[in-house]
């Protein structure tokens, strides 16, 4: 583990040195390459936002469906045949539901959207500088 951490640190240190060299060179930040990179970054952040929202929505639906299914199957079992596992699973699903309700996914989605808007404004500025 320590060897792997050391090797990763060495790679990070090398990249950091290379970036320091690049920062000393004056660069035109409105080159075609930079504009394409900004467009690609905006596209990736947009995909990230969409997938993030979809994952949260899917997980919430999954937990709700699983909770409802457990409630329905619990009502089908006789009192003397009820399992300790079903009540444990039901409690776990209830806690999972509560955790999703407390989850600050809207704030995270808004932060991602804000990043996307900032990148968009950078792209607009790059176009204006290019023109």
Automatic annotation (TrEMBL):
Domain DUF632: 1-118
Domain of life: Eukaryota
Name this protein carries in UniProt: Uncharacterized protein LOC110746967
Species this chain originates from: Prunus avium
Gene: LOC110746967
């Amino acid at each position: 583990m320590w060897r792997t951490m050391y090797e990763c640190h060495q790679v990070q240190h090398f990249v950091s040195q290379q970036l320091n060299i690049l920062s000393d060179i004056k660069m035109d930040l409105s080159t075609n390459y930079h504009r394409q990179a900004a467009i690609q970054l905006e596209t990736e952040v947009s995909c990230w936002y969409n997938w993030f929202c979809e994952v949260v929505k899917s997980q919430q639906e999954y937990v709700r469906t699983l909770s409802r299914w457990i409630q329905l199957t619990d009502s089908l079992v006789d009192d003397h045949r009820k399992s300790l596992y079903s009540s444990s699973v039901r409690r776990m699903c209830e806690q999972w539901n509560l955790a999703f309700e407390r989850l600050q996914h809207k704030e995270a989605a808004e932060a991602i959207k804000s990043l996307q808007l900032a990148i968009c404004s950078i792209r607009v500025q790059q176009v204006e500088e290019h023109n």
